[in-house]
Amino acid sequence: MSSPSSLEVRVSIMSPRPNKPVTKSTPIMTPRTMMMIGIFWMAIIFSLSGGQEIDSGSELNKESVSKSNETVAGSSNDDKLRVTIYYEALCYDSISFITNQLAPAWQKHRDQMDLKLVPFGKAYIDDSNPADPVYYCQHGRRECNLNILHGCILAKLPLEKAFPVVACLMKGTRTTFDQCISRNKSVKKAIKECSQGQEGARLFKGYEDDTNKVATPLSFVPTIEVDGVYDIFEQDRWLYGFENKLRTTYEKKTGRSLKQSIVAN
How far apart are CA 261 and CA 190, in angstroms? Predict the structure, then answer.
């Protein structure tokens, strides 16, 4: 007698036991019928559980993509240069750079810059007595007062309004705070109170911390940092050819040309 085929083996396993005879009221389910029933129940189970998991995963993927798009849309790192200027209010080189280099470039390319101003320079804070810190600035006490004033301007106004005020003050003795703040009189009192109180002191301390992360003390003021990198060998190019350096660095980073359109005040 030949050995049973694989199909015959499966049938013998799935058939009722011999000691329980099959009657006409008990229909015999063939392997094909059993397979169809199994597929049917698997489809039901999948629709109730597996399908829900897939749908849930789809929603998670959609949410993830949505958040990713929001991050890209709101990010300034990919389409702007992060430019940080460490300067002093009465430093001749700072005055010259902001007046002749930074301000004109800002007028043209501020949409391509994520600009941060840090008015501290080579100052020093003796806070051995936290209740009464002592400030030392390269150009005397008046510079410390002005640095703190600049910090309060930057804190009380959005940058697009604060920068013109700071640039105005950096013209030296030709301008005063009252003149430079004339377009933003609503915050004049708040800025003065800030510069004369604890808020200004806290801001100044924060600027010291920011500056010390670059160097203690700075080797030169102003110091320029781009995308978080301070390159001492590139400083002269930034100081004396800021717009050209901005243009080439921006194009290298983004692959796009830096437009020369002037942004209106």
Answer: 34
Nearest to 146, CA basis, from 101, 204, 99, 84: 204
Nearest to 199 by CA among 209, 187, 191: 191
What number of residues does the chain have?
A: 265
Q: Which of 227, 258, 252, 244 is nearest to 76 (CA)?
A: 227
In the numeric block, which tokens belong to residue 10?
């499966």
Instruction: Give the mean pLDDT of 83-91.
Output: 97
Name the DSSP letter for residue 50: I
- Of the candidates 153, 163, 154, 149, which has an alpha carbon nearest to the alpha carbon of residue 195? 149
With a CB cutoff of 8 Å and minimum separation 6, the contacts of 144 are 123, 135, 136, 137, 204
Tell whether pTM > 0.85: no
Model confidence pLDDT, tens digit, residues 179-206: 999 999 999 999 999 999 999 999 999 9
Provide the 3-class DSSP secondary structure of residue 86: strand
- Pairing assessment for the beta strands 81-87 and 223-226 based on DSSP bridges: antiparallel
Q: What is the dihedral of CA 186, 188, 190, 193, to 10 degrees?
A: -160
d(CA 152, CA 11): 88
Contact 120, 221 (CB under 8 A): no
d(CA 74, CA 157): 21
pLDDT tens per residue across span 118-136: 999 999 999 999 889 999 9
